[in-house]
Sequence to fold (400 residues):
Amino acid sequence: MIPHRPSDRLDGSLRLTTISLLLLLALSTLSFLPSVGRAASNVVCGETITSSIALTGSIICTGSGLTVSGNGITLNCAGYSITGSPVQPGGIPYAGIEVAAGSNGVTVENCTVLHYEWGIYVVSATHTLLTHNVAMGNPAFWVKGGSFNSLTSNTALNVDEPPCCYYIGAAGFVLSSTSSDTLSGNSAVGTFTGYYLASSNSNSLTGNTANAFCCGYTLDASSYNTIQGNKENGVLGSEVCFVASFGFSATDYSSYNNFVNNWVGGVGDGYFVSSSSSNSFRSNTATLTCNGFEIDSGSSNRLVSNVANLNDRNGFYLPGGASKNVMLLNTADGNSGNGFQLSAGTFSNKVFENKANGNSGYGYYDGSLGHETAGTANRYIADSCFGDLTAGSSPSGLCI
Fold:
């Protein structure tokens, strides 16, 4: 179960003000956006596109927008917009653009989709390319089923208020039940979750950015994915330890994922693992978060050459139940709590050749009892500590 902190909501006025600023910033960059309401001469609302086409104007719809169905088809909106109406309670959710099931090799480019429940929706299609689009929705971009789809250089806008992190409608980009998809160079602006993978395997997320209020990148029951070179620029500020949020998370039996060279700041926990095993975190950075790296009820995960600095609590945190994890060559600097904390109930973890410098608590704190290093249940080898304000370690002897 995902833990929740005392408050899982941001202050309303702060949230709305920040959302408004982010949306204005995003829309101000869209120099190609024409005035909404300009009639398109070559498509109508609800039309199914079966051959390649470039739009000649914008359309405003009260139901579904456009559907693309077939193989090798390109829909080029040429910067024009497809605008819908927000779904009413109990109403039917519509998509601004849908790539129909069974389609192969469809390209959707240069489109702006506004005020739809689902912005751009790809269902059970293969080799789809979505590029240089802007979409607002809940989610803004949703790829459901299918494989070998690519999303590049798109922008997701999302201003809804559903629960954070583990809800498809809260996300800018969603992959559900997919495999071998690629997301690169995309931006999620003003979303509650930036990127959400649900039961999706062997996908690649590289070079994406998120300005999310709750969670940047969530992997839920998803395995064998590569998450590399991405950023989460959170907006929580002093609220990082009072909102249930995570920069990068692997939960609910997400295994064998690789997180490499990512950066996160301004969210709850920088990197979070729960009920998941055998994930790898290498050369990632967490700064100005709550706990930089947290492995909660996970086993056999590897943390190598990561940096946690200036976080509000601990640099690296293993609560009770975490076992058989490896922490090697990591650095914890200037954190307000402990550099490395392994709580009572942790066991068989390996903490080798790490550095703890200038943390406000201990460099290394271990609350477990056992027959390993210094009477703990975990093993420490060649870990260093310097300038940690409370002491180098508790118990003593965990670092040199």
About this structure: Residues 1-40 have pLDDT under 50 and may be disordered. The chain is about 5% helix and 40% strand.
